[in-house]
Design a protein that fits this description.
alpha/beta, TIM Barrel, three-stranded antiparallel β-sheet, 14 helices
Length: 356
């Protein structure tokens, strides 16, 4: 039998109740907040008066881990998989960033965070929810960052895509970056969020659209570097979750080249090369990418973490140990520990590993 590889996961998800916001928010706010209804064939998603429908994915439901909606069972699932602690993003909470009404947006974020405190943070120190904050009002976002910090959150979730005119390199965001930096929480972006992920319906559309979900994560890093956010906030730690890792050295090279070639035109001026900022402050997570270990060992990008994507169908539940051995067998022991344990523990406070 193969040796058990114990690991922290830098990418998982909570499964909120279908009617979380309907029950948590009063009157009109609850009616306009995200909710899910089904008729046996279709799933209907309602967000602030808009309705989206999609076929129920019975295949995904059939293979969802037993602990998807039960925290006690979830911890048993993690024990069986060798996973010690997880960073947990929302699932239905991703829809909040599509709300344009300031009061509703703020109320939905607060309600999700309160639910995550009651159902997760108060009950275990192994699952670390990422708090949701407003993406349309910076003052509301800053207030919720500080409230989340006081409630025990260790990360702030942000979508990778925002409307034109709100790009993350703009000055409007700097007070928020400063607030996150001040708390010491991680600024965690998850790929595939903030926009419609179906952009192409031609041949190979499923593959093309999956790739398209990853591109905005790379755009986030580019804007945070070129716009000066990482330079101005040197203690800010940024995570791009579920988007792989080996793209980071290539992006760093391209940004260095751009900075050199267009130096006289560049504003703002940076105190170091883009690659140095990226390697200092940007972290990534991956699931199955065989290029992730070489990114650390051969290309020198150290800030790489593994993620199980629990409880999503594309995650590793049921074959986590097989996946980990495929990825890490033969790798340097220090590299394995860095990617599976140490980088995560550098960012987050988690329980000490108990002896096996």
């Amino acid at each position: 039998m193969s040796e058990l590889i114990r690991v922290h996961s830098a990418d998982s998800h909570l499964m909120e109740p279908d009617d979380l916001w309907l029950q948590a928010l009063p009157g009109d706010l609850g009616q306009r907040a995200p909710r899910v209804e089904t008729d046996g064939t279709y799933e209907f998603v309602y967000v602030d008066g808009e309705r989206m429908s999609r076929m129920l994915n019975s295949f995904a439901e059939q293979f969802r881990p037993p602990g998807a909606t039960d925290l006690v069972q979830r911890l048993e699932d993690l024990d069986g998989e060798g996973v010690v602690a997880q960073l947990a993003f929302p699932s239905r909470g991703f829809w909040i960033c599509g709300i344009s009404d300031r009061d509703l947006h703020r109320a939905c974020a607060e309600a999700y965070n309160d639910w995550a405190v009651d159902e997760v943070i108060a009950r275990t120190d192994r699952v670390l929810p990422a708090a949701i904050v407003s993406t349309i009002d910076i003052d509301d976002a800053i207030a919720e960052v500080h409230r989340a910090d006081s409630l025990g959150f260790q990360a702030i979730y942000m979508p990778t895509s925002v409307p034109v005119g709100m790009e993350f390199g703009l000055e409007r965001w700097h007070p928020l970056w400063g607030a996150v930096e001040e708390t010491g929480m991680v600024l965690a972006f998850h790929i595939g969020t903030g926009t419609n992920n179906v952009v192409y319906r031609g041949p190979g559309g499923a593959v093309v659209n999956y790739w398209e979900t990853c591109v905005p994560g790379q755009r986030v890093v580019t804007h945070l570097v070129a716009g000066g956010a990482l330079d101005r906030h040197p203690d800010l730690k940024v995570l791009i979750a579920e988007g792989g890792a080996s793209w980071v050295p290539a992006l760093a090279d391209r940004l260095d080249e751009a900075y050199r070639q267009h130096g006289p035109l560049v504003q703002p001026k940076l105190s170091m090369l883009p690659s140095e900022l990226i390697y200092r402050q940007v972290y990534t997570s991956f699931q199955h990418d065989v290029s992730a270990v070489p990114a650390v060992e051969a290309m020198g990008y150290q800030n790489v973490m593994w993620g199980d994507d629990y409880p999503h169908l594309e995650g590793t539940y049921g074959h986590t140990q097989e996946t980990l051995h495929t990825l890490f067998d033969g790798a340097n022991a220090d590299t394995v520990r860095k990617m599976t344990i140490e980088n995560f523990e550098h960012l987050f406070d988690v329980p000490a590993l108990a002896p096996v």
